[in-house]
What we know:
The chain is α/β, with parallel strands linked by helices. The protein has helices spanning 3-8, 32-40, 53-70, 82-91, 103-111, 130-135, 158-163, 175-185, 199-208, 224-238, 253-258, 271-278, 314-324, 327-337, 347-353, 358-362, 376-387, 395-409; strands at residues 43-48, 73-78, 98-101, 137-138, 141-142, 145-157, 191-195, 214-215, 218-219, 242-244, 262-268, 284-287, 298-307, 367-368.
Amino acid sequence: MTRHIARTWLGAGALLATGALTLTACGSGFTDSGSAEQSSGGSLSILIGSSGDAETQAVEDAVAAWSKESGVDAKVQVANDLPQQLSQGFAAGSPPDLFYLAPDALAGYAANGSIAAYGDDLANKADFYPSLVENFTVDGKFYCAPKDFSTLALVINTDLWSAAGLTDADIPKTWDQLASVAQKLTTDGRVGLAFGAEYQRVGAFMAQAGGGLLSDGTAAADSAANVEALQYVKTHLNDGSFAFASDVGAGWGGEAFGTQKAAMTIEGNWITGALTADYPDVKYTVAELPAGPGGKGTLQFTNCWGMAADSTNQENARALAEYLTGTDQQLAFSKAFGPMPSIQSAADAWSSANPDLTAFLAGAEYAQFPPNIAGAADVITDFNAQLESLKTGDPQAILTAVQGNLEAIAK
């Protein structure tokens, strides 16, 4: 993932640029000619966001291979602003047949009947990670095939780790251990741990405390577990061993880590590409996030292959979605631009190809996902604005405000 994409997730989700990692890109929008092709039913139109040239080329090559094999014409277009162009396509009655769809956009499109719920008809339905199926399920309907996913893990600068007298045995497994090693790694001009001032990072601590923004669809932001999580983060922001990336002059955790203003960061597997491209001399290892009072916890980010309810070619669109989420193709995508396969059958092959990154995949077993109910993106945006002042703020007051906002949109 590029630095921009990693920052905007999630700011995703890509990142919160609606859905994680892949919602802004360079390229042409969904054009009138593409709309005409879609409405004819003679060919498939596919609209994607992209993290860069590698992702664009990989998707185009995969679709071309499927098209040649199936005999069905299919065209890929890359959006400049995927949420906006997708919304415009629906409003004009000419949406693409298949498209990247972020979880935070799912409920709205499901409610107004814009998208088809085809997930239960997928031949590979049972192969998807259960948490990803849940991520794209609304009112009991599994809408769309998760195309890939990412989780958060702890990224450690191994040179700074060794210089502080730490060994593999010191890799933190608990909050207390994380605080201890962060303190040992903190020196003048460098903080032990830095991460983004946003729910998409701080939310991992909430999960580890046994909390989360929702519980069985009900707003639960002001729970005691969430207060404990924010208080833990606040405590270590104030003792100087933790910092938000912006507080050390970085745009995101990966930059703070790459410039060695932080010895550790909490990021997703997109950081690997950014480090290779921008900070190739930084040596690092990846570990699972430490468990909190509630156990292990992390956040996952994903998109699915959405299908337009008005598509005249749904059978072929579903066949293409199955092809793009098959084992071989997902492994090819992972090699090309970094995401983890959304299907369990690819786990062993992915782990063999990426032995140093398995902590990310391990998180799939206990990952939470950001709320996928309509209006959640606005609630999280407001939450993020409040988190920026957590160091001097009141965790209970912050979460009480989030609770009120969530109650207004949750069932």
